[in-house]
Write a structure and sequence with these properties.
With about 325 residues, the chain is α/β, with parallel strands linked by helices. The chain has helices spanning about 10-20, 20-30, 40-45, 50-60, 85-90, 100-135, 140-150, 170-175, 190-200, 235-245, 265-270, 280-290, and strands spanning about 65-70, 75-80, 160-165, 180-185, 205-210, 220-230, 250-260, 290-300, 310-320. The chain has two domains: about 10-110, Winged helix-like DNA-binding domain superfamily/Winged helix DNA-binding domain (Arc Repressor Mutant, subunit A), CATH 1.10.10.10; about 135-320, Vaccinia Virus protein VP39 (Rossmann fold, 3-Layer(aba) Sandwich), CATH 3.40.50.150.
């Protein structure tokens, strides 16, 4: 049996002081389930903004919670890995779910979930016609997702980074198979939809963050990184892949899902696709520049077998023997 790493006395005392207060413990229980703003927490706990903000500041300083800025809004969430995460598990799991105060907080949290789901439904309704038009051009989504799971889970990943997460659907698909994950997108509208998607399914081990695939800061590395229907929007896919590789664990896998070359000009004119699909040799060249090599590819062709439908391509890559760019290099 492998011994778990021990925490220092100072760290443990600091965490106990931060968590050992009723309001802060309630905050941790809430933030462990959903990304929440100060406004959300005010409505749930029915306490003043200065009081909530002061408690959040203490939790962030203690390393038990994190703050993520998205434009004018800041979201808070419990940390999801490391020694502080193990401490939180020990503190939060024994709390009785039928405790009157916790049950009241959970009921009000459900109201937040419902409001987000309503906003997401409105956004879907406004854009459904465009999305359905594109989906009608290729094989069913469930077939694509099945192929993604078969390829993506071949390396038994424990962690997932979904770049350009959009509605959060890929996070939803992989959530039962990973211990934790993060979805990143530049669109705040899409982030709202993704948060509602995860909240509706009570997925608490996956987080949503605002970010840019070109500007991924160094940080936690992931066993599986997914770019699903992202590269055709990008001006410089090569740069995005080089940035992504820096967040990949040794032995990790990067999966690209996109369209094979096609002739649907309306996707460029009406939907901002910069590329009308991509061929495998191009993908291999970009991967090579990132220090990655192609491991597997699949072409999911439409049943019609003609040029009136889109072929969905899946490419799985891993570290090359010669990794090329190193983490410290300045990429152009």
């Amino acid at each position: 049996m492998t011994d778990l790493p021990h925490n220092s006395l100072d760290d443990t005392v600091g965490w106990m002081r931060a968590a050992g207060e009723p309001t802060r413990l309630r905050l941790l229980a809430l933030l462990d389930k959903l990304d929440l703003t100060v406004s959300d927490l005010i409505s749930i706990l029915d306490q003043s903004q200065p009081r909530i903000s002061r408690h959040l500041k203490l939790l962030v300083e203690a390393g038990l919670a994190e703050r993520f800025q998205e434009g004018a809004w800041a979201y808070f969430r419990t940390v999801d890995h490391g020694a502080a995460r193990r401490f939180l598990d020990g503190v939060l799991k024994p709390i009785a779910e039928d405790d009157d105060v916790i049950a009241q907080d959970e009921a009000r949290l459900d109201d937040i979930r419902a409001a987000r789901a309503s906003r997401a439904a409105d956004y879907f309704a406004a854009n459904a016609e465009d999305w359905n038009k594109i989906r009608s051009l290729h094989i069913a989504e469930d077939q694509v997702e099945t192929a993604m799971l078969e390829m993506g889970l071949s390396g038994q990943p424990k962690s997932l980074l979904d770049l350009g997460t959009g509605t959060g659907r890929i996070l939803q698909v992989f959530a039962p198979h990973v211990e934790h994950g993060v979805g990143i997108d530049t669109s705040r509208d899409m982030l709202s939809v993704a948060r509602a998607t995860l909240a509706e399914d009570s997925i608490s081990h996956i987080q949503i963050r605002h970010g840019d695939v070109y500007k991924l800061a160094d940080g936690e590395r992931y066993d599986l990184i997914v770019l699903h229907q992202v590269l055709h929007f990008l001006e410089d896919p090569s740069l995005a892949l080089r940035r992504a590789k820096r967040r990949l664990t040794m032995g990790g896998r990067l999966m690209i899902v996109d369209f094979a070359p096609h002739q649907f000009e309306f996707l460029r004119e009406e939907h901002a696709h910069r590329r009308l699909g991509m061929a495998t040799p191009q993908i291999e060249r970009w991967l090579g520049l990132a220090g990655l090599e192609l491991i597997e590819e699949r072409m999911l062709k439409p049943s019609s077998g003609d040029d009136t439908s889109l072929t969905v391509a899946l490419w799985l890559a891993g570290h090359a023997d010669n990794e090329g760019f190193e983490d410290g290099d300045q990429y152009p």
